[in-house]
Amino acid sequence: MKEFALPIRFGVATSGSLIAYFLILSLFGLHTNVLYSLFNGVITGFGIYESIKYFRIKKGVAFNYGIGFTAGIVTGAIATIIFTFFFALYATEINTQFLKELSKVWFSDYDTLEGSIFFTVATMGFATTLVLTLAFMQLFKTSKNLNQKSA
């Protein structure tokens, strides 16, 4: 656990940023527009990128693809879990009309259950985490290509 203290801290910070962004959107009544959730990927991506970057600095020469990949996944998973719990708390306790408003705008033809929406939020977070971690590790992995000089 101590090994991944840095990615866990970045995950908590990322979830705090996601929650703050959601609450700012709710102040303006924009939190029911699903298109604004695309910026969640930018926030999550920044957190994962910074986590891998600082983890690479911390590990130095011991850094490898597996360690970096795990750091990115841990950061994104922590952020996703905390944000999903907040989202569920917000939708069921703080603003009980939120899911009705969201369903009215986007899912008028379907009878959506709370659990399916929370599951979708978590799935989107985990999918974003996986894709962004794989993408960022292409930047941080050490090359195994030999440095060849042309004659």
* Series of H and E elements: HHHHH
- The parts where pLDDT drops under 50 for at least 5 residues are none
What fraction, in percent, of the residue positions are helical? over 70%
Number of strands: 0
Q: From the helix content, strand content and strand pairing, which structural class follows?
A: mainly alpha
- pLDDT averaged residue by residue: 85
Largest sheet: none
Report how far apart the termini are: 50 Å
**Per DSSP, what share of the residues sits in E-state strands of 2 or more residues?**
under 5%
Cα gyration radius (Å):
19 Å
Tally of helical segments: 5
| Shape annotation | elongated
Helices, strands, pairings?
Blueprint: H1 5-27, H2 38-59, H3 65-94, H4 98-106, H5 114-140
Helix pairs in contact: 1-2, 1-3, 2-3, 2-5, 3-5
What does the model show?
This protein is mainly alpha-helical and about 150 residues long. The chain is about 75% helix and about 0% strand. The chain has five helices and no strands. It has helices at about 5-25, 40-60, 65-95, 100-105, 115-140. Helix 1 packs antiparallel against helix 2, helix 2 crosses helix 5 and helix 3 packs antiparallel against helix 5. The longest helix has 30 residues, at about 65-95. It is elongated, with a radius of gyration of 19 Å. The protein starts with a helix and ends in an 11-residue tail after the last helix. The model has no long low-confidence stretch (mean pLDDT about 85).
